[in-house]
C-alpha cells in the first residue's frame, strides 16, 4: 500500500508540473500517468488502491463543492442575478438532454442509462474555469460587465444541477432503467431536501463551534467531517446530498468571519492539491484504451453535439442580459472544458455494476482529454479578443 501511495504522490507531482510546463492542463498529465501505472499498462498499483477509487472520487467531489460554496458571495450573486440563474440551469439541461437523446439513438440505450451519460458529460470543469476566471477578473478582462464573475457563479451552480440530475438518473437506472415520470417529478424534492440538510448542518455546526470556541485545525476537521456527514445523510435519504454540501459551504462563508473563511479556503485548497492527484490518477488507471478507441467516433459526435447544445443554451440564457454577441460567445467558450466532475462521477455507473458503465467512463475520459486543453486555450486566446479590459470591480 505504501509503495503505491509513494508512486501516486511522487510521480503525480512530477507529471503535474511537467504537463503545466509544456502548456497543457495538468489534469491530462495525471490521467496519462494513471493509465501508465494502472492495470491496463504497467500495473504498478495494488488492487486495494483501485478498489478505493470510488470513495476517493466522492471525497474529491465533496472538497470541490465545499470550495464552490465558499467561493460564492451574496453580493456577487446579486450583481449577476437573473442571468446567472438562467446560465446555471438552461445550458446544463439542454446539453444533458441532447446527449441523452443521442445516446439512445446511437448506442441504443435505455432512457435512464442514456441520462447517466448525458449528465456525466453535462457538468463543466471548476478545475479549469475557476482559476481561468479568477485570472481574467484580476486582470480586468470583461469586468466592465462582470463577465468572469457571471461565469464563476453560473459554473458553480451548473455542476450541482448536473450532479443532482445525474444522481436521479443513476437511481432510476439502478431500479430497472425504464422511464418513470415519478422519478423526474421527485427531482425538486431531492433538490430542496438536499439544500435544507446543508442549511441545518451549517447553522448547527456554526453554533457548536462558536459555543465551544473550536479553532485552528479542529475547526477545519469538523467542517470536513460535517461535509461527509451531509453527503452520507443525503445518500441515506435518497436526496441531493451533494447539493447540501455546496449549500453548507455557502452558509459557512456568509455566517462566519472573514478570517475563518480564509482559513477554510486555504485548508480546502490544500486538501484539493492532494485530492486531485489521487482523483485523476485513479480515473486514468481505470481507462481501457481499447474501449475508448471503440467508442471514440460516436463518443466524439456526442461530446461535440453536447457542447454545441450548451452554447445554444448560453445564447438563450443571455437574451436581454445587456451583454453583446462577443461576450455571450465568450461565455459559451468558457463552458467548453470538462474535467473535474467527469473524473469524479464518470466511474459511478461502472462501480454500481450498471450496463454500459465502462463505455460511460471511457467517453467521460475522452471528453476530458479533448475539451480540457481545448477549453483552456479558448479562454486564454479569446478573452482579449471578445472582452473589454477594465479595472476589476472587486
From TrEMBL:
GO CC annotations on file: membrane
Main location: membrane
Alphabetical keyword list: Membrane, Transmembrane, Transmembrane helix
Gene3D superfamilies: 1.20.1530.20
GO biological process entries: proton transmembrane transport
Compartment list: Membrane
Signal peptide feature range: none
One function term, GO molecular function aspect: antiporter activity
Bilayer topology term: Multi-pass membrane protein
Regions that span the bilayer: 26-46, 58-74, 86-107, 114-134, 146-169, 181-207, 219-251, 271-292, 298-317, 360-383
The keyword Ribonucleoprotein is assigned to this record: no
Domain Cation/H+ exchanger transmembrane residues, every copy: 8-374
Protein name (record): Cation:proton antiporter
